[in-house]
Amino acid sequence: MDLEPYRGELVAYCYRMSGSFHEAEDLVQETMLRAWKARERYDASRASVRTWLYRIATNVCLTALEGRARRPLPSGLGAPSEDPGAPLTPAFDIPWLQPFPDARYDVDARADLRLALLAATQVLPARQRAVLVLREVLQFSAAEVAEQLGTTIAAVNSALQRARAAVAEVGDPGGIGEPDDAGAREAVRRYARAFEAADVPALVRLLTDDAVLEMPPVPLWYRGRRDYGRFMERVFQTRGTGWTVRHLGAGGEPAFAAYAPAAGGGFRLHTLQVFTVTGGRIARNVVFADPRVFEAFGLPPEISAEECAEAR
Fold first, then answer.
1. What is the pTM of this model?
2. What does the alpha-carbon distance between residue 171 and residue 43 come to, in Å, rounded to a whole number?
3. CB under 8 Å to 306, separation ≥6 — which residues?
4. What tens digit of pLDDT does each residue of 32-76 get?
């Protein structure tokens, strides 16, 4: 029984459930171990290998998530800050939502790995989250999901209705569709050029009116062009100019790693920034400074000026 072809999609599923890429890989490893031990009991007449694996993965996720706090973004914890000079004090006691590194696995449905949708589904109880993902994203039938969860079709349909209503209250998932990759990535390239030039007015012109900037593990966040721009002025005043970036993909959205100029020459990794683009403008920028996120994306901590020139 070859289970490896399913690893990528199972990691994406466990990530949708847990909100953590590292945890998702661990959950899939546990799923594969359980499946290997139970391989002699697998009955092909009852379910395909894929459906059987998702049942095991769902049980692994539900057990792991029992009693766990949700993984939020800063914008899910309170009102936006109006002080661009506020202290940037990390809150390491909060299990923050993490981005999904696109280059690590070949996953088809990337639109449903986006941070905004993941943050919305994190408000759901774990079983409702499983129903929503299995039915709406992975397109399992109500009967298959009932079998995977050990419940009834009626209970699955009821849970799905409640999950849809709860997510709609947080943020309409209908607005989070498959992106126009070319248009979104071009908008981020323009943003990157302005960022590297430390051109704050140009950055602000590329934003939507109510653009959001948030920076986990720092719990504060900003909304609107004015405060976004004022905070970016603070960044360049305190960290200097002459930054460089490396473009990436995160959960189907454009992203880049931002490298600040280092005192001894070259550049040092500072943040991973993940963008949501709407109508050709930046609507959200989630800025990650967690070393574990850097590790997941395979980002070098330092790059030389020569490497930067070659990348261009």
1. 0.92
2. 41
3. none
4. 999 999 999 998 888 899 999 999 999 999 999 998 889 999 999
